[in-house]
């Protein structure tokens, strides 16, 4: 066997090893649906090199090493509060309907937290009803309002929430609003976001994107 053939065999073997590693990663990645697993395996099997490059760019979501470390520490602090008597006591034991318990089990499997009593939840089938109820709760608030949005648009419903926050801040309610840098980019770039800050609403941008190349270097 010539040196060229030997190098070709070694290169082919290394490529297949990397290929199988990528496919195994796609299959074993936690919190991924079966359809997504199968789709990535098919793509990488049909287009080995392009499939692996696509998986590197799109296959897994990463917020960066520094943010992951901050999130890990925050989760540890939250987990520690489970042992505090006023949090873990009988008055905070959940009283959930049997028809919804499977949903709470799914949530626990994702984030490690179990439901806590003392909370109230109402399900709506219409987005307009949801916004109207949210605005009503903000208008009724007397102490604080904390809101987190992934998608917050400066449209009719989105501006109703923004106006309600400004009204609440004007009457002395502590208001905090956080919106995702990508999903809420239109709101974040609008004058309405600046007006909320000027009215006394404490605003924050979640996961700012910035320069992706520089973020990859910094982690």
From TrEMBL:
Residue stretches making up the Cardiolipin synthase N-terminal domain: 27-59
Protein location: Cell membrane
Keyword Iron included in the entry's annotation: no
Segments crossing the lipid bilayer: 6-26, 38-58
InterPro entries the UniProt entry points to: CLS_N
Primary location: membrane
Membrane topology, as annotated: Multi-pass membrane protein
GO cellular component, one term: plasma membrane
Keyword vocabulary terms for this entry: Cell membrane, Membrane, Transmembrane, Transmembrane helix
PANTHER family: CARDIOLIPIN SYNTHASE (PTHR21248), PHOSPHOLIPASE D (PTHR21248:SF22)
UniProt protein name: Cardiolipin synthase
